[in-house]
Amino acid sequence: MKIVPPSRPAQKRAVTENLLRKAGLQDPLVALVGIRGYYLDTMGEPAKNDRGIYDDAILLVSREAHIAYNANCDPSAFRPGIANLKAGIWQYRLGIHGLSKPVSRQYEALVQAAAVTVSRDGRGDETGWFGINIHRGSYNSTSSLGCQTIYPDQWQAFIATVKSEMKRAGVKVIPYLLVNGQ
Known about the structure:
By secondary structure, the protein is an alpha+beta fold.
C-alpha cells in the first residue's frame, strides 16, 4: 500500500481561512492548519481515518503564503496508551525534536509551546506536556508516537518556510488548528 498520495493537498486559501475563522482565529499573522482525513476516501480504507499513512494535510497560512504539505496527524499504529492529539487549537514554537536520542539524530522541529490534550488508545483523554511535536516522518512509516509528521521530501521546505513566516510576522509561537475532516 502507498503511504503518500501522488500530489500535495489542493485546498483553496479561502477554505483554510474559513476554518481559522470558525475556530476563532481571526486573521492570524501566521498559522498552521492540520486536516485529519484529508484523503479520507482516496487513500487507505474508504471512509476510515487510517493510521500509518500520509492521508492528512498540514497547511501553512500567512499574509504571504498558503502552502499545503502531505502529513500525518495520527499515531502510526494502535497501541494501548499511545497519544492521539485532539482536534483544537494548540501552540507550537521552534525547538529540537528527539531530545532523548543521540545528538546526531536530533533536529529542529516545532515543539509544544503549551499543554495539549490527547486521547490515549484504550485510556481516554489527558492534558499536559507530552512532546507532541510537528516533525519529519520517514519514507516507510509516518514515524509517529502521537506527533504530527510531514512527508520527508517536503520537510526541509516546510520547516524553512515556517521559520521564515514566523520571523516575518515577528512571532515566537505559532497556532496550530487541528480539525477532523473538512
